[in-house]
Design a protein that fits this description.
two-stranded parallel sheet; alpha/beta; disordered C terminus; single chain; about 15% strand; 5 helices
């Protein structure tokens, strides 16, 4: 006898200072945060039914994102469902350890994983991060300090890092995401 597991997926789209963000929920837990034009963004039809941002897990996600963009929050406290390989999940687990306003190089991240020669693999896993901003893959840079690839676009990466370092103003209105 074969049993199949079905998952319920929903999504909502909210505005941000970096363009529209698509929030995806799998079985009531945040499993995706994608920017428009993002590299490795799954097909829209995989996001499930579109709902409003005040349904499912989305109100708390929006509340924390709003506080982040207003400069009132430096980290997130949300249940996440990160779907990927064991290696990808280990990389994403390290990403949330990068302090707000700081950066690590791909090599530094690889060394922290105990795989000092895996900076390329770390970069590939970083690029597949399904929950951008909240799992801060934008905080990883090239060894020389260069702004190498970012799934949401290098311009957004530069802006997010400038924002976190205080060089770009926070969005003051708490309603910024609505």
């Amino acid at each position: 006898m074969t049993t199949t597991t079905t998952t319920a997926r929903t999504h909502a789209v909210v505005e941000s200072p970096y363009g529209p963000l698509t929030l995806v929920s799998t079985d009531g837990v945040l499993s995706g945060l994608y920017m428009s034009g993002q590299r490795h963004r799954p097909a829209e039809e995989t996001f499930g039914e579109r709902v409003t941002a005040d349904e499912g897990p989305f109100p708390e996600v929006v509340r924390q994102l709003t506080a982040y963009f207003a400069g009132e929050r430096t980290g997130f406290d949300l249940p996440l469902r990160l779907e990927g390989t064991a290696f990808q999940r280990s990389v994403w687990d390290q990403l949330v350890r990068i302090p707000y306003g700081q950066t690590w190089s791909y090599g530094e991240l690889a060394a922290r994983l105990g795989k000092p020669n895996a900076s390329r693999a770390v970069g590939l896993a970083n690029g597949r991060n399904p929950i951008g901003i909240i799992v801060p893959c934008h905080r990883v840079i090239g060894a020389s300090g260069s702004m190498t690839g970012y799934g949401g676009g290098v311009d957004r990466k530069v802006r997010l890092l400038a924002f976190e370092s205080g060089k770009e103003p926070a969005v003051g209105a708490p309603e910024a995401l609505f």
